[in-house]
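Narrative summary of target 7.
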Amino acid sequence: MCLTEAGLELTRLTLVDEMGRVILDELVRPSTPIIDYLTAYSGITPASLASVTTTLPSLQPTLLALLAEAPTYLVGHGLEGDLRALRIHHPYLIDTAVLYPHPKGAPYKRSLKDLAKDLLDGREVQAGHGSSGHDSYQDAVTALELALLKMTQAPGFAIPEAWAEGGREGGREGGEEPLFGCMRGATEGKGRSVGGAGD
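Modeled conformation, tokenized:
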């Protein structure tokens, strides 16, 4: 993303399939003049976008068609910001910022970088954070791997210990994780809809 006269706008979109293969990777020209490329975080430079003609409105039909292949789960880290930047809604979301909560609880979130280091065998991602920026492909694959890891573990995997013991102030008794509670309800015929929204 970069900072424009309208606020933060998308500059690159990367989607990968469940095997980590790229299915969409596009640079996107913002709709309003750019104030700051935020290169230290985005990796995007003026040269990166110099010849780009793809806009978000021109890319949305392709994105929505890919997501419409039922059911397609959109996996990412901090998806509320991504959905807002994409200006879309999608019913099937897996957000690793929610799957792996911060020990202090909301509104704090563990970074993708820290999750990868702690849970994916010390993997270093976002090495360019603050200098050359993130790699959206690497971020997408890392979020996908973290989601798949969570699905192969017990419900309490990587949940702060105090929560698992029911000790989180204002938390759930017994440390039940909401995601898995919803999944259990759905498999017992007590389906529950969870929607995501961006503005």
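Residues 167-199 have pLDDT under 50 and may be disordered.
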